[in-house]
Automatic annotation (TrEMBL):
GO cellular component: apical plasma membrane; basolateral plasma membrane
Database matches in InterPro entries: GH, GH13_cat_dom, Glyco_hydro_b, O16G_dom_2, SLC3A2, SLC3A2_N
Catalysis: reaction(s): Hydrolysis of terminal, non-reducing (1->4)-linked alpha-D-glucose residues with release of alpha-D-glucose
Name of the protein this chain belongs to: alpha-glucosidase
Domain of life, source organism: Eukaryota
Domain Glycosyl hydrolase family 13 catalytic residues, every copy: 199-541
Residues spanning the membrane: 149-171
Phylogenetic lineage: Eukaryota, Metazoa, Ecdysozoa, Arthropoda, Hexapoda
Matching SUPFAM superfamilies: (Trans)glycosidases
Broad EC category: hydrolase
One GO MF term attached to the UniProt entry: alpha-1,4-glucosidase activity
Key words, A-Z: Membrane, Signal, Transmembrane, Transmembrane helix
Length: 642
């Protein structure tokens, strides 16, 4: 009995389970019902609206609904099947599809008591990627393993290639060499001492004007006596006096000749076949010598020697020319240079450089070309002849190369070798495109300024300045030359140069030209040039725009004033102008045509003659109307526009 009851109960339970499962399947298969609010078209499709009187239907009066519609009971809400398809089987509309979505209703209260209803459709399920378990199925797949390794190797190979490439670019890129600082003799100025005054008496003035070096002119006849006690004592005093103020000493020497007491000349007289004899230029007795004239006195340059021969003597009585192309004469000059440098001298200038080599077998000189000759000269005048046999001879470049290398070696590059006169023909002193001297003297700048005012003096001065720097820039500087790699000019002037341009104006205009100012000490002292203005100019010379900047020369729109600029990128530019006119016809000058100068200048220094009202240091002036007094100069700075 109990067993049958248990079996019956079990059957009932199983039946219930099967029935529940069947009902659940049926419920899922049946269309689900949902409701939507009827729109106005549905409400009015029976022909009723809110204002229509409700008629009786089937003999009965129908009560109007509270909402004022004429819909029948249950008609306000319509039944939709689960698929959104009407019983008639029509395709669902877009509204029907939206009706199937669940709507999230938000009531958002506002401050005025109203409520805003925000209805949002429930977000659809986002597309998701593969699960971790699905991905792990491919982790050890051979294809994906090889692909991963390939991408790994490619990544690091490319990364390494980029790293090596960057190193190569850095290594192989052109290097921008740092600007070479100027040496002491390039910074300047260099002051020429008065040989008749005591060295100690000149020291205060030298120090006041900030000279980097002093120039002492050794008497010409003492050039080859530097190893004697008298000359040595003088040179030691010179070096020690100015060395206390860290002022370097430069000595001018005249290496062209020796006196009759010189040991080399005496040996030449006694030994006609010796090397000493070849150091001089001879002509046999009984033969007429060439028509070479003396430089220092009237008449022939040939003198009778005690050995009954003619010997060349261009520089005066008892002074006999050395032929520096010969080893004996060249060694004598080198010994003199070593003696000077060994006593503390740090610069040497050679006088009469064009005469250092002579054609010992040369014939008669030819007259100057008629177009170049001075018509007032005759055949007895030195300037009447060309002197091709005794000046600018081939080989001067090689001679100077030996001498300048000696000076640099003896001073570890600190010293310099130069000349005391205009070289005129720089190509003669060059070897393979390098000018074999540290500070050449070249150009007509000083001579043009001596002419003073004139209708075309500004144009001529501009032409000669540009020509001088263009010509000299065609040559490279020697090893210890200027930082720009080009020769550094000497800018020499003396009291004779100031006939038309006063000392203050000359100094202001000259100091920022590319080169080193060289002048006698009395030029500044007697010209009332203040030490403050020279100190200011030296500060300007220490700036990058001067030491490594570009240089260009200009005249104003009417070519009556001369100006130049100094500019290095990233630094203020310098504008230097000189008015050469002596009249008051025009006081402003237009330089607006200068490319990149801007419209305004700031005055930083004026010369002694500058007397324009309300214009001084730190005053701004327009570039198209620069105010200048007659015979005055001005320096201004500007910000370049390019």
């Amino acid at each position: 009995m109990d067993e049958s009851v248990r079996n019956s109960t079990k059957l009932d339970i199983e039946g219930v389970r099967q029935q529940s499962a069947t009902e659940a399947l049926r419920a899922e298969s049946e269309p689900k019902e949902s409701y939507r609010k009827l729109g106005e078209p549905d409400v009015n499709r029976n022909g009723f609206d809110a204002a229509t009187t409700i008629r009786a239907e089937n003999g009965h009066h129908a009560m109007p609904r509270e909402n004022g519609t004429g819909a029948k009971d249950g008609e306000e809400e319509r039944m939709l099947n689960g698929a959104g398809v009407e019983p008639s089987g029509a395709e669902p509309t877009e509204k029907d599809k939206l009706a199937q979505k669940e709507v999230e209703v938000k009531f958002i209260p506002s401050q005025n008591g109203d409520a805003r209803i925000d209805m949002e459709l429930e977000s659809q399920q986002a597309l998701t990627g593969m699960t971790k378990e699905e991905l792990m199925k491919y982790a050890n797949d051979p294809f994906w393993v090889r692909l991963r390794w390939l991408l790994f190797v490619l990544f690091w190979a490319l990364w390494g290639a980029m790293l090596l490439g960057s190193f190569y670019i850095i290594y192989d890129a052109p290097k921008c060499a740092a600007p070479v600082p100027l040496s002491w003799w390039q910074e300047g100025p260099l002051v020429e001492l008065d040989g008749e005054r005591q060295f100690a008496d000149q020291l205060p003035e030298v120090e006041r004007y900030g000279a980097k070096g002093v120039i002492y002119r050794l008497p010409a006849d003492e050039t080859y006596l530097v190893e004697t006690a008298a000359v040595q004592g003088k040179l030691k005093q010179l070096v020690s006096t100015f060395g206390t103020k860290d002022v370097k000493v430069v000595v001018d020497i005249t290496p062209n000749y020796v006196t009759k007491e010189d040991a080399l000349f005496q040996e030449a007289l006694q030994k006609p076949d010796s090397a000493a004899h070849s150091a001089f230029v001879w002509r046999e007795a009984g033969m007429k010598p060439p028509n070479w004239l003396s430089i220092a006195e009237e008449g022939s340059a040939w003198k009778n020697a005690s050995n009954n021969q003619y010997v060349l003597s261009q520089f005066g009585a008892d002074r006999y020319d050395l032929q520096l192309g010969e080893p004996a004469a060249r060694d004598k000059l080198k010994a003199t240079l070593k003696a000077l440098l060994g006593q503390g001298v740090r610069g040497v200038r050679l006088a009469n450089a064009k005469h250092l080599l002579i054609n010992r077998d040369g014939g008669d000189e030819a007259p100057m070309n008629l177009e170049e000759a001075d018509k007032s000269l005759t055949h007895t005048d030195y300037g009447f002849w060309t002197h091709k046999e005794t000046t600018y001879r081939e080989g001067l470049g090689e001679l100077f190369r030996e001498l300048v290398e000696l000076v640099h070696e003896q001073t570890d590059g600190e010293g310099f070798l130069s000349v005391t006169e205009d070289i005129l023909r720089p190509e003669v002193f060059a070897v393979n495109g390098t000018l074999q001297m540290d500070a050449p003297l070249y150009g007509n700048i000083e001579f043009d300024l001596r002419e003073g005012s004139g209708p075309d003096v500004a144009r001529k001065l501009r032409h000669d300045i540009e020509n001088a720097y263009r010509t000299i820039s065609e040559y490279a500087a020697v090893a210890s030359g200027a930082g720009s790699g080009k020769p550094w000019l000497q800018l020499r002037y003396d009291r004779a140069s100031l006939e038309h341009v006063p000392a203050s104006e000359y100094t202001v205009f000259h100091f920022l030209l590319p080169g080193v100012p060289v002048f006698p000490l009395d030029v500044l002292a007697r010209g009332n040039v203040s030490s403050e203005s020279v100190e200011t100019l030296e500060k300007f010379r220490a700036t990058p725009s001067f030491q490594h900047g570009l240089f260009n020369v200009y005249t104003d729109a009417n070519a009556s004033a001369i100006a130049y600029t100094r500019l290095k990128s990233g630094n203020p530019g310098y504008f230097v102008v000189l008015n050469l006119a002596s009249t008051d016809q025009k006081t402003t000058f237009d330089f607006s045509g200068i490319d990149g100068i801007g419209s305004e200048l700031t005055v930083v220094l004026t010369s002694q003659n500058y007397a324009v009202p309300n214009v001084g240091v730190k005053t701004k002036v327009p570039v198209d109307a620069v105010p200048l007094s007659p015979k005055s100069a001005l320096i201004a700075t500007y910000v370049p526009t390019k």
